[in-house]
Amino acid sequence: MPDSASSSPAATPLAGGTARPLPLPLPLRDIVPWAVLVGALMLLGIYFVGSEEGAFSLVGGTWVHEFVHDGRHLLGFPCH
């Protein structure tokens, strides 16, 4: 009787006779919405860290600048 784990189409036999499961394919249409969302959030974060002050400021006052001040220096954005 053949080993049921090694005869499965979702398993690959190894040298020791054991089976290793194959990774399932992830369709691109499942990745794209999440990639767009993460990209938009990253761009929003870079905006607030990099340019939320001066002429292009969306938020009045300096509290956003002070909140991300150390992050600006860590990422190399000049602010002084």
Listing every helix as H and every strand as E from the N terminus to the C terminus, the arrangement reads EEHHH
Q: How much of the sequence is in beta strands?
A: 5-15%
Major sheet: size, sense and barrel closure?
2 strands, antiparallel
- Uncertain segments of ≥5 residues (pLDDT<50)? none
Radius of gyration: 25 Å
Strand tally is 2
> What is the SS-derived class?
mainly alpha
Arrangement of strands in the largest sheet: 1-2
Task: Report the span from N to C terminus.
Answer: 76 Å
Instruction: Report helical residue fraction.
Output: 40-55%
How does the overall form come out from the CA principal axes?
Answer: elongated
Would you tell me the overall average pLDDT?
A: 75
Q: What's the total helix number?
A: 3
How would you describe this structure to a colleague?
- The protein is elongated.
- It has 3 helices and 2 strands.
- It has helices spanning 28-51, 63-67, 69-75; strands spanning 11-13, 19-21.
- It starts with 10 loop residues before the first strand and ends in a 5-residue tail after the last helix.
- Strands 1-2 form a two-stranded antiparallel sheet.
- It is mainly alpha-helical.
- The model has no long low-confidence stretch (mean pLDDT 75).
